[in-house]
Amino acid sequence: MQKRLTQQSWFRILALIVALEMIAFSINFFYAPINVAAGGATGIAILLDAAFGFNRALTVLIINIAMIGLAAIFLDRNTVRNIAFGSFLLPILLYITPSFQLVDDAILAVIIGGAVFAAGIAILYRLEASSGGTTVPPMILKKYFKINSALSLLGIDMLVTFFNLFVSGTNAFFLAAFSLVVTSIIMRYIETGLDLKRQVQIMSNHKLDDIQAMLLAENISMTVYDVRGGYTDDNKTMLMVMVDSSNYAHMLRQIHDIDENAFIVTTNVTEVHGGRLGY
């Protein structure tokens, strides 16, 4: 048991390092070379580097230390512990990771950089960790003023993005705004798209037994519900199955072959945990 916990701890640390290096990679190879600041402490660092030549890694370190101080004052120890590792390691990775323009096209740089950055942040979320920085003020605002943390974080990122106008010009501003969209879309896909399944509820007036037999023959587990019609007040039976997206169309076609009037409701499910649902 102790050995397993140790392995899990080392795996978590390795995953944290990989996630933070992905963020550093996206900044040093895609955003910073074209002076595009798309929010966060790293965005502030890019702006100060472009305007005054300040070292980006040092700027991020100073901001993160200040945010750890705020978290220590206004938040709990567990939050401070969760952000401390990333807050100190990210500036180190920014410093030791080379920095040069990897692609010439600015739009392509924003797309690739946004994808890499989003993947790194998504991994941190999965690990319940953080790179610190501007993620701290939204947590404080949520705790004391009940302000949605996602909205306040978006507001901070938009403010940083706005300052691109004064530092790097209009093109950088629109590229940074586009980057926020790219990052948001890719993060949502990473968080919900890797285990996407369909929850399907099936009702049939006369051929539900045949549909159930077909599903069992296809080795699709199911749950059977006793329901009551809202219009007729009749007792009915409903099947609920969980299938991969790749198998959904095939199953739907087979149901319609049995009963073309079958009532089917489908819902996207982002994650499924545990064993089979059939009893």
Automatic annotation (TrEMBL):
PANTHER family given in the database record:
UPF0750 MEMBRANE PROTEIN YITE, UPF0750 MEMBRANE PROTEIN YITT-RELATED
Q: From which organism does this entry originate?
A: Weissella diestrammenae
Cellular compartments annotated = Cell membrane
Report the principal subcellular site: membrane
> Pfam family of this protein, just one?
YitT_membrane
Q: Which GO terms describe its cellular component?
A: plasma membrane
Keywords associated with the record: Cell membrane, Membrane, Transmembrane, Transmembrane helix
InterPro entries from the UniProt entry: DUF2179, N-reg_PII/ATP_PRibTrfase_C, UPF0750_membrane, YitT
User: Which residue ranges traverse the bilayer?
Assistant: 12-34, 54-75, 82-100, 106-127, 147-166, 172-190
Q: Does the keyword Hydrolase apply?
A: no
Q: What is the lineage of its organism?
A: Bacteria, Bacillati, Bacillota, Bacilli, Lactobacillales
Q: Where is the DUF2179 domain?
A: 222-274
Q: How does it sit in the membrane?
A: Multi-pass membrane protein
Q: What protein name is recorded for this chain?
A: YitT family protein
